[in-house]
Amino acid sequence: MIHFENVSKFYPTKQGKHYVFRNINLDLPTDKNIAILGPNGVGKSTLIRMIGGTDLPNEGRIHSPQNISWPLGLQGGLQGSMTARENVRFVARIHGYKNTKPIEQRVQDFAEIGKYFDEPVKSYSSGMRSRVTFGLTMAFDFDFDVLLIDELGAVGDANFRKKSEELLLSKYETTKLIMVNHSVSSLKKFCQAGLVIQDQMLQFIDDIDEAVKHYESIYVKNK
Predict the structure, then answer these.
(1) Whole-model pTM?
(2) Higher pLDDT, 126 or 24
(3) Which end of the chain has fewer CB atoms within 10 angstroms, the N or the C?
(4) 217: which residues sit within 8 A by CB, 6+ positions away?
């Protein structure tokens, strides 16, 4: 389970606090792959970052006994002034690896970004960042209970997308996903349940088809 206790997230504006989420109390199961559903601007990526601990609620807390990944996707959790190799080395050492070279090689081979692997991450395209971020998470021997995926499929490289999907599918037995993706067909392919964002709240629906129907009834016009 992932537990939301009185969770609120807001940003200050000239008109006062702009709430993205307000007073959420929810126990989110982690025995199914979950699609996060909502239109642009309602907080899907913010939610993913808070679950992964790279962003924090203004009020309340999110906690879980599960081992949850950092968000994988176009933005990623890479330090921009460091190269991909340096980022991989840093993360590997944090997790207790003294010999980081095998992990560096694994990520380099997976990412397929050539000489840019030794250039600062801030010079990368969003797709290159996504390749490195995904490869970094998949390269380690430790297993996450939950992988957080934020628009990973938006990378326009068919070969990388196919390789990523095969890797995700291979982890289904031991790892669950919480996924953001603009493609409903992709969400249905990977997920069995849905989490719909509406009116600064979250509604968990145990069946992905029912979750998509509910989402479309709220947000998709002329259905």
Answers:
(1) 0.78
(2) 24
(3) C
(4) 223
